[in-house]
Amino acid sequence: MKVLTIQEPYATFIMQGMKKIETRSWKTKYRGEIYIHAGKSKKFLKRIHNNKVLKLLENIDLNYGNIICKAELIDCVYMTKDFID
Q1: pLDDT tier at 50, thresholds 50, 70, 90
Q2: Which end is more exposed in the chain, N or C (fewer Cβ atoms within 10 Å of the end residue's Cβ)?
Q3: What is the mean pLDDT of residues 71-82?
Q4: Which residue has the higher pLDDT, 9 or 78?
Q5: Percentage, residues of the chain above pLDDT 70
Q6: Strand, helix or coil at 7?
Q7: How far apart are CA 39 and CA 70, in angstroms?
Q8: Cβ 10 vs Cβ 36: under 8 Å
Q9: How many CB atoms lie within 10 A of CB 5?
Q10: φ, ψ for residue 83 (rounded to 5)?
């Protein structure tokens, strides 16, 4: 089984169904089930300045350093300007 490490709080957002898309600088041909691992570092949390994300954090428990759910990787899309728009 493949495992993808995602920094908190975004790993927990995936687990709760609040986040459906993950962006990476690399692509993969793999499709299918993957485990989501919440990264251990808390440094990333200090860099969040988006008020909507900060508001969501008020009522959730984060899961540092754990495999927290299983997800399905269904596609890998090259992020063009048209796709982002």
Answers
A1: confident
A2: C
A3: 87
A4: 9
A5: 100
A6: coil
A7: 15
A8: no
A9: 14
A10: -65, -40
| Rounded Cα–Cα distance for residues 7 and 4 (Å) | 10
Distance CA 60, CA 55 (A): 10
Cα distance between residue 12 and residue 43, in whole Å: 16
Domain extent for 22: 2-84
The β-bridge partners of 34 are: 2, 71
Q: Domain total for the chain?
A: 1
Tokens representing 28 are 């993969």
What's the rounded Cα separation, in Å, for the pair 66 and 68? 6
- What kind and span of H or E run contains 84? helix 81-84
Mean pLDDT of 25-30: 88
Q: Which two tokens stand for residue 52?
A: 């909507």
